[in-house]
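Below is how a single chain appears once it has passed through the pipeline. First comes the sequence as given, then the structure the pipeline wrote out for it. We keep one example in the README because the format questions we get most often are answered faster by looking than by reading.
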Amino acid sequence: MLQHRFIESAKKRPDKMAIIDRTTGRDVTYGRALLASLILARRFQKLERGRIGIMLPTSSGGALAIVGALMGGLTPVMINYSTGAAKNCQYAQQQCDFKIIITARPLLERVGCDELPDMVFLEDIMDELSKFEKAVAFVKSKLTPTLLIQLCGKKDLDSEAVILFTSGSEKNPKAVQLTHKNILSNIDSFSEMMDLYNMDNLLAVLPYFHVFGLTINLWTPLCLGMTSITYANPLEFKTIVKIIKEDEPQMLVGTPFFLEGYVKHSEPGDFASIQLAASGADKCPERLRALYREKHNLEILEGYGTTETSPVISVNPRDANRPGSIGVPIPGVEVKIENYETGEECKLGEIGKIIVKGDGVMRGYLNDLEETHLHISSGWYDTGDLGTLDEDGYLWHKGRLKRFVKIGGEMISLVMVEEALNAATSEEIECCAIELPDAKRGSRIVAATTQSVDPKDINKRLSDELPNIALPKKYITIPEFPLMGSGKTDFRTLTDMVRDLEEKA
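Resulting structure:
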């Protein structure tokens, strides 16, 4: 169990720093983290049964609340506060059948969210602690690891460890049930493959409501006895570069969007401590890899995963990186490429659906058997992504199946169009291909760009790379694309914006 691994880490090295909190300055050792988690576990048990909402930033308080929930036998439901916090709170309560949401007033102020009736503030809990509560927790913390493990949380590896929500970039978020076995298998396999056992610390800036933030930034260091250097806002690029320079983390994991922000605000030598830089959640462009090589002599290792797989499916090994690929499957994970029309397994090099099997595959979508059965068959999870496997077992991502459109009876990849657009425009311009309905051909493609471009000139350049039916029929300037909490483009919102502009035109 996740909390049991944490207990073992805490009892083994109680004086080691567990979390360096660069947001609040509330650094905690493993011994103090254990004590605080026991206190919170007891409090949470009085507030809720079954599940409890957690809406807290990447911080010592956020981490301890999650650990405390599990130690109290509760399942944390992680709530995204970056895209409509109040709406997401209510949606999570409806989907997951709980009332209480643990949060903090500074966070509500930061994201502009009003206080809701069922919110309980972490700072109030800590301020109201009695001497008796502290004494009980202290006595428990001194028990042997074996006795303490018996007292703290569930013992079934197949029980819920967390509920996370899918990004909702294409449709309404789904509640993903991940078990202790799911997350622990991912931690152990990823750690083995990337040799994390010889590392002492990592930079943790990804939000805990994001699966990479929860598994890699929170539970991996706590299970391995590492120090987590946390900061609550991954978009404050200059501050994070300063933290990297001063606190010297050995591992940096982020999305391409975040990693690009950090490298652009850094100077040679700032990342001298980094031994492992890994990218996920979106395609890593070659120009970003080149920036890290030139400035810091660092090779970005691209990986791949989903919320439903806890998350890591594949990653490039440290000693065998193949830029452009999304790596090889981690130990214990099977990957097949399946023809999206026939369901037959594809040959090497053929593009098809990426399907995955292993202990990391989720239990299912909460209260949604239909969606669960659509995505999981005989233990194989259908990622909805397209890819190929090469002769050496490396996986190559080719886009989302849902981001293919049929125009005049021909399947066109929006990702392919975007890649051509990016190549035909200057580096500072972001491009996105949007599908809109068309009375004659069924669909048409509109290009959204963050700066105005010359449509005729761009389409002339694109004509060498794309068939005529794939050329954008219109170009619309949107200075700033909407983003998910991970830094990925929010395609659903962007599509709505383009459609609104089209209707008004």
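The chain has 17 helices and 26 strands.

See the next section for the split statistics.
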